[in-house]
Amino acid sequence: MLTTTINLAINWSCKRTWKTASYNTSWCLLGCAIGDLGTIAYFQFMGIDWPVWAIMSLAILNGLITSILLETIILSRQMSFKLAFKTAIGMSLIAMIAMEVAMNITDVLLTGGAILTWWVIPIMLAAGFLTPLPYNYWRLKALGKGCH
Question: What is this structure's pTM?
Answer without folding.
Answer: 0.87
